[in-house]
Design goal:
The longest helix is centred in the first third of the chain and has 17 residues, at 109-125. This protein has two domains: 5-83 and 396-431, Urease, subunit C, domain 1 (Roll), CATH 2.30.40; 84-387, TIM Barrel, CATH 3.20.20. It is built from 15 helices and 17 strands. It is of the alpha/beta class and 436 residues long. Helices cover 37% and strands 20% of the residues. The strands form four sheets. Strands 3-2-1-4-15-16-17 form a seven-stranded mixed β-sheet, with no helix packed on it. The protein has a five-stranded parallel β-sheet with strand order 10-11-12-13-14, with helices on both faces. The chain has a three-stranded parallel β-sheet with strand order 5-6-7. The protein is globular.
């Protein structure tokens, strides 16, 4: 029988799917299957086709589940918990300051794509099985998202915002710091807008390019190459247009905001998360509670700043260096106020400003600034999954949810730094081997 090209393609797809279909048993020394509860002691998970099928107390073999074909992964000496979620990354770069500015005009999209793929591998190896990428150029991460989902390259599950929506001279304006005659070429992503109608266009542009979520930079930023402060830099009608257009297309809105005026404006408009939130008043906290929005602290940025400056005192210059010094001194103060007030916290690092693969450093900073290890883990599992709109798929290890899990030595509920050394990473039922 002659097989057509289409039939051959369908057979290959079917073959790939059957090859991935596997029944596994995970025997865990301790299991944090539901991060809002105390961990189980000895436990066994049954995984079928990349999904959790059953969880039992005690260590059991294949015969106990009636699956003699199952492969057993022995983690009886380790602590097992859901795969971690980073709600704020930038996979396209590990550079900062002057180096990042130069790379934005020197690196081609293929260069950037390869670096993003490398950073995705580092992130997955660190135990982060899902990330939300909040800003990149040329829709590079959108392509990486699709390649990871198709099993073509290893990496975490990705939700991407494409390019961040910004006003002219706002934090995500790609022309900042460059001479005027280069601005037209640099503004190729159509993410900069002025006036409500133009901001609607900018949002639609990112959605047309495949964005899962919309990122809006409502205030100035630490890395913005402009001495315009960290207060609000969008008019209310512009910000409202971004939110309303995003909602029209069923997209969540993440908002970069440092200044309290920008935090309050965004929360009044009903956004889903505030990123950074460096200056937070009692009124802002009340608005968080009223709206149900999440706070994503991104404390790890200070690690990136300090390490780059130690390696190269000229890594940051001028107004950027002044803002960095301010940010280092004030980091964590808002989290210290938000936690006892009951604001919902979701884990996010701003990796790319901090170093990829070092995402778990954020846990130590969260605990330093007022969270218990259990609260920090909950922020990186249940809360982050809710923020991303994926709470029915990830963030816990319950029947019907994705088999995303990690194993560590020690007890991260006692010492959260145990999450910096991950012994095993599994995503969708497949063990990730960093050398593959």
């Amino acid at each position: 029988m002659r097989i057509t090209r289409l039939a051959l393609a369908l057979l290959l797809v079917a073959g790939t799917g059957s090859a991935c279909a596997e029944t596994l048993l995970i025997q865990a020394g301790r299991l944090l299957d539901r991060p809002e509860r105390a961990p189980r002691e000895a436990a066994t998970l049954l995984l079928r086709d990349g999904v959790v099928a059953e969880v039992r107390d005690g260590h059991h073999g294949p015969e106990a589940f009636g699956v003699p074909e199952a492969r057993v992964i022995d983690l009886r000496d380790r602590f097992v918990l859901p795969g971690l979620i980073d709600s704020h990354v930038h996979l396209t770069s590990d550079k900062g300051g002057v180096a990042a500015q130069l790379s934005s005009v020197q690196d081609s999209p293929p260069d950037v794509a390869l670096e993003a793929a490398m950073n995705a591998r580092k992130t997955l190896a660190a135990g982060f099985t899902t990330v939300r990428n909040l800003g990149d150029d040329d829709a590079v991460v959108r392509a990486l998202r699709d390649a990871v989902a198709a099993g073509k390259v290893p990496g975490p599950r990705i939700l991407t915002a494409n390019s961040s929506i910004s006003a002219t001279a706002g934090h995500a304006d790609p022309t900042l710091g460059f001479r005027m005659d280069m601005h037209e070429a640099l503004a190729r992503d159509g993410n900069v807008c002025n006036g409500a109608d133009d901001c609607r266009r900018a949002v639609r542009r990112q959605i047309a390019a495949g964005a899962d979520v919309i990122k809006m930079t409502i205030t100035g930023g630490v890395n913005s190459r402009i001495g315009a402060g960290l207060g609000v830099q969008m008019f209310e009608d512009e910000a409202r247009a971004v939110v309303e257009t995003s909602r029209l297309y069923g997209k969540k809105v993440a908002v970069h905001a440092h200044g309290d005026d920008g935090i309050q404006l965004a929360l009044r408009l009903g956004v889903d998360s505030i990123e950074h939130g460096t200056l937070m008043s009692e009124e802002s906290i009340a608005l968080f509670k009223r709206s149900g929005a999440f706070y994503v602290p991104t404390l790890s940025t200070v690690n990136g700043y300090i390490e780059r400056l130690e390696a190269n005192p000229g890594a940051y210059t001028g107004e950027v260096l002044a803002k960095i010094q301010w940010r280092i001194g004030i980091t964590g103060k808002s989290l210290e106020r938000a936690v006892p007030a009951g604001v919902k916290i979701a884990f996010g690092t701003d990796a790319g400003v901090s170093l990829h693969g070092r995402n778990a450093d954020e846990f130590e900073l969260m605990v330093k600034h007022g969270m218990s290890p259990a609260q920090a883990i909950h922020a990186a599992t249940r809360n982050a999954a809710e923020l991303l709109g994926l709470a029915d798929r990830i963030g816990a290890l319950e029947p019907g949810m994705a088999a995303d899990l990690i194993a560590v030595d020690g007890d991260p509920l006692r010492d959260v730094t145990a999450l910096k050394q991950v012994a095993l990473v599994m995503q969708g039922g497949k063990v990730f081997a960093p050398g593959e």
